[in-house]
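PROTEIN–LIGAND DATA SHEET

This sheet pairs a single protein chain with one bound small molecule, pyridoxal-5'-phosphate, given as SMILES. Inputs appear in the order they were entered. The predicted three-dimensional arrangement of chain and ligand is reported afterwards as a token string under its own label.
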Amino acid sequence: MSEFPISWVRESFPALNSQENFVFFDNGAGAQVPQVVLDAVQHHLLTCNVQRGGRYRQSQEVDAAIQRAGQSVATFLNAREPEEVVFGMNATSFIRIVSLALADTLGDRKEIVVSDMDHEANVATWLALQRHGVEILWWRMRPDGCLHLDDLEPVLSSRTRLVACTAASNALGSIVDIKEVARMVHAVGAELFLDAVHYAPHGSIDVQELDCDYLVCSGYKIFAPHMGFLWGKRPALEALPTFREDFIPDQIPAKIEVGTFVYENVAGMDAAITYLENLGIRTSTNGPPPSRRAALLSAMDSIREYELRLSTEVLKLLSQIDGVTVYGIGESGVVPGRVPTFCFNLRDVNPAAVTVALAAKGIGVRDGNMYSPRLLERLGIPSETGAIRASLVHYNTVSEIGRFAEELRTIARG
Ligand SMILES: Cc1ncc(COP(=O)(O)O)c(C=O)c1O
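PREDICTION REPORTED AS:
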């Protein structure tokens, strides 16, 4: 693997090059966008800001842009075909659309398994199906901050319709062994709904290899503007009884896309994938990558490797600060089990006071429940105060981690 091109990466993101020199450690809530994304959104708004389906140049350009973006996302996910990619507003609305459709197709399988490690978007949406006769079973996270396959086994049966779980915890960073989850879920004849929102900026995704049935992502977590996409296996999406107006064809992806979505942000999503491809060309060690998919794999593998170094550094520095408790995977020996998202508390200091003090020093981190209140409860963290989360991505640096740790040490000293 070649040296990670961090200077090129940082130069690509205008927000990282402002005078302010702000440290963006709240990427779990949304990442910055590279210039190519800004250019694509601007180009769309300036040259073809019209509705699809018209017989004039601008409208045909919108159709072409959406088609291109579908192909790009399909390549990013290694989907079998671009029609399996559906664009929309955000991950939550897609979870809701799929869950409501599944509620109409339960048959004898009335059980849905959810986890208490997940973002509430992938919990509450399924719990809402209880009024449709669904019975919820819980895949419980252990105190180590991980979902263990041994705990999934007992809640699966011939009554299971679906398991909904995340690929990585948005609060703790713990990664789930999705390939094995899919094998277990399919062994009982059920389906797997994967929330890839938090995992997607940190490593490669191959839906064919993972063998999940549905997957959601949010563009704004993967260096694109606010939008979301759903992927599903063609037969699964085709079988969904979704709402659609009479004039919408009963075909994927149209039958799942409710109304008009944000075309300029879909163009931005396409450009974010181009940015990742360009990164992959730079990180490729054996000459130019032979395909777009190969370039994306090169990018995501090098991001993963670089971020493992960031994780090791964060854990090392946090362990040197008196009074810090890291929740979840806290030892540097096991960093491959996590993405660089760190949830912690400082003894006798209110989490909000820590994030306010860091903000005053130009460092953005988050406090609260990270929209995973059940996870906090499971770890015995008081919900009124919550915890602190620093969530890094590949444009962050060891030097930023040093600045963050230094300020934290000052706060800890009181
Ligand atoms: C893991 C995870 N799932 C789902 C969501 C909800 O995504 P959206 O805002 O696109 O609905 C988030 C948002 O932070 C998340 O982190």
